[in-house]
């Protein structure tokens, strides 16, 4: 699929190149560095193009961007990666030049009393908005150190400007419910601009805070769904926004509609299965999630290691007999051998699941709350209805905690008479993991996600008063939940040096504790927690000595940088 995509983008790039304005011979090019009007990147050079040549310039940049993205994903070595990165630089340069041209002619039109240059067709205009807007957003999402390096080459990402340009293509604003540009007036790339906005607000919001606007995404989605009621992408968006609003059951319905809307592209069904697997975990429905992972493992090819691990942990949690546990062990054993590389680098999440699979084997077929831990990485606790957290997730955590606390204090056990010995291998890793998950669950009980819709009539929230067996739930007050959450995170800090393998727990605990403090209005203390993670300092030293790297480090740094920036911009913002 990647090779076919690269072939098509090369062909498109070749066609566009044939219609671009030809640059002058070498002598004129050299003169262009002295006389700016002769330089191929000058405003006058773009003005001298015909409309066809300007469109060709735009399509050249678009196809080069697509080719670079596909090449980065496909390439297996750093040389190919650098080559495609240079193509990306060329793309951004062309987009910025076209953007400057559009600004210049619009300013001239404005001085004559027109709102913008009416001679520029909407298709070209929407394409420039798309390219310049996306380049700003992509650059703004880069880690701080990489941003500093990119700025040396003259490129800087302005996220707010990027979002405004994408909104401009459809005439969207935060103040109006509908767009100012209707279907008859739109450019051909308007729908792609809308899709890009939805991807930012609904998908990239998992890693950033600044600029995210769920109500705006809802307006864009409603308008496009009314226009394309069976549009598979917008049905995906409806599912995703339901998940962001802590309505996973509603999300599952939309993903099923997306699958039913088309049968031609089976790969699009895999997106639905992936999202449904996560949504079922957010509902505490491990068995239903297992069926989705099975479909992905059987058909999808993007990450066999993650699909297989997702299937394996659900099998472990659902196993009732020794035979089922052995079958789960066989599936788990396949995970490390299924890892792949992109641009010569391992995928962090695949490295994480491979380590967990090896740990499962080393511990004789045991992992602590593996489905809930995997779900945490996919934000299932953040997107779970409060009733599910209270009646399913927390009881599972408390059950394992009872076993561990029995081993820690030399007595006590859970309701099944099980307890753990603190001297056994991996004891403190498991204890810190359970306390960490307890802290996260309690934090979301005290402070639900800011975008969550808490509907008392939703059966998943109404269930907050009774357990599955009908017994009453002992509801915590907000004060008690946030107090116990903080205590759980501080437990991880205290006992982090005893961790043997799962060192990432300490760093994730500092991040989550910082978010708890931010919700409590303690912005100064929250900032300190975020800066501990960002600093790169070693926050724990285990029995094996100093750990230089830890699992999911880059993803955590992205989220922590985003939380830190959001806190600096608005100290009163709930994260």
Automatic annotation (TrEMBL):
Stretches of the chain forming a coiled coil according to its record: none
SUPFAM superfamilies the record matches: TPR-like
Protein's UniProt name: Tetratricopeptide repeat protein 39B
GO CC list: cytosol; mitochondrial outer membrane; nucleus
Alphabetical list of InterPro entries matching this protein: IML2/TPR_39, TPR-like_helical_dom_sf
Family matches, as PANTHER family: TETRATRICOPEPTIDE REPEAT PROTEIN 39 FAMILY MEMBER (PTHR31859), TETRATRICOPEPTIDE REPEAT PROTEIN 39C (PTHR31859:SF1)
